[in-house]
Every structure is written in structure tokens, then in C-alpha cells.
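Before surveying the methods themselves, it helps to consider a single example record, giving the amino acid sequence and C-alpha cells:
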Amino acid sequence: MSDDLKNNPEVSKLFKRWQVRTIIVTMIGYALFYFVRKNFSMAMPGLNADLGISKVNLGIFLTLNGLIYGLSRFVNGIFADRLNARFYMATGLLLCAVANFAFGFGEDISAWITGEPSGSNFTNTLILFMGILWVINGLLQGAGFPPCARLLTHWIPPKELATKMSVWNTSHSIGAGLVVILCGYIMGNMGVGENHVGAWKWCFWIPAGISFVGAIMLFVFLRDTPSTVGLPELPGTETKKDESEKSAETKAFLRKKVFGNPLIWILGVANFFVYIVRFSVLDWGPTLLKQSKNVSMESAGWIVALFEIAGIIGMLVAGWATDRYLKGRAHRTCVFCMLGTLIFVLIFWQLPSDAPVWMLFATLCATGFFIYGPQALIGIAAANQATKKAAATANGLTGMFGYASTAVSGVGFGYIAQHYGWNLAYITIIVMAFIGMGVFMLMWNAKADGYEE
């Protein structure tokens, strides 16, 4: 921390206030990005029933959105480092809200384009138009995390970043959990008639309206850097061009510790399977619960929300257990977590459709508890194996595998459910969890980190 902050209590107090404000506002803002992204999962049963959009096409929407989002995060990271993060994040959320408003009017716009409210020409136009809109939304979603990363590193000293960033990370699950509860209520209580026809539209309009207000909040309450409010900058947060990054020594280090390190590739492949299981439940959970377990959409929303909440607890317990009992070997913890995931998905599958709702709650929450452990620990394991000099590159590589998983959890899962039914879909999740556990076991005897080398 700079001398001005250390030696001046008033300045330090004001800086602390702005720091807390930045953490809270970015947490709310990033949670709202999930409001206009994970709302799609709750709307899928309506899109399928009201518009006749097949599970395969819905899966394609999910896959393209996920792949574009992964690429967009990388590209937006480059721009966010150079532009005002306050405006960048607010504008990104605003545009996501606009895309969601347009998606809700997709049926009407397609009817206007074709001049008819039904028929093959209308259906094809509808699928194409809504698919393009959801891909655009994936592109815009990439403007969420990079500005947060810039803001947090400017307002939080490096020695405090890990602890405070872990608190901030709960915004993912908070946003996903709240939006599925909200949309579950919408799908179960709005729309026309007993089947709530058209309720899916409000799953886009209402979260979009909330996010629109949130974008204004980001603009009003955020500030890009401490200097913009007359406070001293933290040491090391100034933008500097590090020439050593281009040196032959650095490139050789990256080749050895990341691109030529089999442990990093194993973690990447494992991440692929972890994300398949996570996204299969998170994206398809509402549809799966309604169609295979006869759960109301309102209850389905609460179940998926608790899946996320249990995941927060699972992340914290997995991290504690890794340090307490496994001497930092996060990959070993992941083996046990994948085994737990496999067991509880199997139990959930075998529960009859008339099983008490509390049993569905309990088993799916247990699944969330176990699957979120590996999701958090893979990043830690990759950073430890690559060491701090190549941690970002290693996490970028393993992250690409995670986003690539939408090819299976999206269109692949949709195709299986459409043509072979939900039983084979459950078996697919179980097999993915089993393979993921096997991949983690390939590095069972690996050291906790790569620093000794």
C-alpha cells in the first residue's frame, strides 16, 4: 500500500470505503449479467412447448452462446485493460438487457418479417432470428468479467486480493440462483391459461428490466481507478509494458510449465468434463425436472437455485479439505468430488417421478456441493503447477476447455434428450462424471505444485 494510504488515516478510511463500494457494486453488476444469461434455461420449456423449438435447436443456442462467450471474454479482456472499466461494464450490461428485450419479442418480430404467425417459413425465421440474438448476447456477455478484474485489481492490494476476490466470486452463484427463482415464479404464474402460454417472454423482459436499472447503477456508483476520485493509486497498478514478457527465457518457461506440461493438459481435459456436468444441470435442469420428474417450474427454479447455493458451500469445504487433509493436492480432492457427483446424479436419476420434492432438493443440492469443488480447485491446481509466473496463462488454457464443453452440454445433450429420452441423458451425465474422475486420477501422484522444479 502506498505511503499516502499508510500515513494518512483519513485518506486510508476513504480509500477503504471506496474499495468496499466497488466490491459490492461489481458483485451486484456481475450477478445481473447472469440475470440476462441464465434466464434462458428457465425459459426453455416454454420455448419448446409454445413455439415448438426442438431440444436440439435449444442445445445449439446454448452451445453457440457458450463458445462465443468464451472467445468474447478473451477479446474483451484486451479492450477492458485499455478502456474505462466503469463505462465498459455498464454499457455491456445495458446492451445485454436490450438483446434480451429483443429476444422476448422474437415471435412477433419473426411474424412481422415473414408476414405470417405460423408455418415452416415462420418457424425457420424464428429459429434463425432468435439464435442470432442469443449468439449476440453471448458476445456482449464477455463485457462482464474483464472490467471487474480491472476494477478489483485497482482497488484491492495484491496481499488482500485472494481473500476478497473469493468473496466476490460468489456473485456467480448469487446471480444464477436468484434468476432461476425469479423465472421459476414467472413460468409457474404468468402467461395465458393453465399452461401459462407466453410466460417465457417475461423470463427475458423482467430480468432485462432489472438489468437495465443495474446498468444505470453501475454508471452512477462505480469509479474506474482511485485517481479518478482524488485518491492515490496502489503501487504496481499503473499500466507498464514489461519487456521481459517477450524474452526468450519467458517463452521457454511458458513452454515448459504450461504448453509442454502434461499436468496442465490433464487439468484442462478434466475441466472439460467438470463443465459438462455443471452446465448440463444448470442449463437443462429446469426442463429435465419438469419433463422427467413432473416438477412445477416454480419448484424447479428453487431446486436449481439451491444447486448453486450448495455449490458455494462445496467450494469452501473443498478448499479447506485440500489444505487440511491433502497437503494442497487439489487434484486428489477433485477425484473424491467427482465420485460424489457421480453417486448423487445416479441417485437422482433413480428417484421416481412421484418422489417427494425434498428428495429431489437434497440429491441435486448434493450434486452441486460436489461438482463446484473441482470447478474452483482446477484453477488453483493449474496456478500451482505452472507457478505464479505462468498462472494466468495456465488458467486461460484450462478455461478454454471449460467453455468448449458447451458443444456436449448444449447441442449434444439436447440431441440425446430429443431423440433418445431423458434416461440416456442422465446416463450421459454419469458417464461424463466417471470419465472426469478418471482423468483426475491420472495425476494422483503429482506433487501439490511445480515450484521445486
